[in-house]
Write a structure and sequence with these properties.
alpha+beta; Ribosomal Protein S5, domain 2; 4-stranded mixed beta sheet; 34% helix; globular
Length: 198
């Protein structure tokens, strides 16, 4: 594991050109230019409350749809987080958060297990916030988890305002991730697994 726990990831296809850099548990600068305004807001909140530095630049075919950009950013961010974690020595591994945002309440629980899995339960995300399709939040988090090798369960426990629901979700995931990447001094640099590896 690197001392700084920084990483970068880039991905270029016929649909998107994405560059992501991340620095875990750093409270570093946050600069987001995803090409999808609502996602910019969500990722800024995600990084700020997750206490990590984040840069995202994406040029995508948003004239067609926002889907490709959102999913590919999730792919790159997951890959960058996985790389920044390195061998995962000393990390707490598990993290959880239950976060209110006015009327909304979101629960997130994460295990940096090396096995990518995302589960969602709660309010059906089928509408739009401005031009942003709510289902893109699920697509982003699924891509993030699969490529980051993490097990994430997200539940929306309450809420009626769609903006608040998504913001509570992104904050909860960010805070849960922060707790999971922290170094536990009791482990003495060991791996928190009976297998000896994560």
């Amino acid at each position: 594991m690197s001392d700084t726990r920084k990483s970068e990831c880039s991905r270029k296809t016929n649909e998107t050109d994405v560059a992501v850099s991340v620095e875990l548990a750093s409270c570093g600068s946050v600069n987001i230019a995803s090409g999808v305004p609502f996602l910019d807001h969500m990722l800024s909140s995600f990084a700020r409350h997750g206490r990590f530095g984040l840069s995202v630049v994406c040029k995508g075919d948003t004239h067609i749809d926002d889907h490709h950009s959102v999913e590919d950013i999730g792919i790159c961010l997951g890959s960058a987080v996985s790389s920044a974690l390195g061998d995962k020595k000393g990390i707490c591994r598990f993290g959880e958060a239950v976060i209110p945002m006015d009327d909304a309440l979101a629960l997130a629980s994460v295990d940096l297990s090396g096995r990518g899995h995302f589960a969602y339960k709660g309010t059906e995300l089928r509408g739009y916030i401005g031009r942003y399709s709510e289902e893109l939040t699920v697509e982003f988090l699924r891509a993030f988890c699969v490529n980051g090798g993490m097990n994430l369960h997200l539940q929306i426990l309450d809420g009626s305002n769609r903006h608040h629901i998504h913001e509570a979700a992104f904050k909860a995931v960010g805070i849960a991730l922060y707790k999971a990447v922290l170094i536990d001094p009791l482990l003495g640099g060991g791996i928190l697994s009976t297998k000896g590896v994560i």
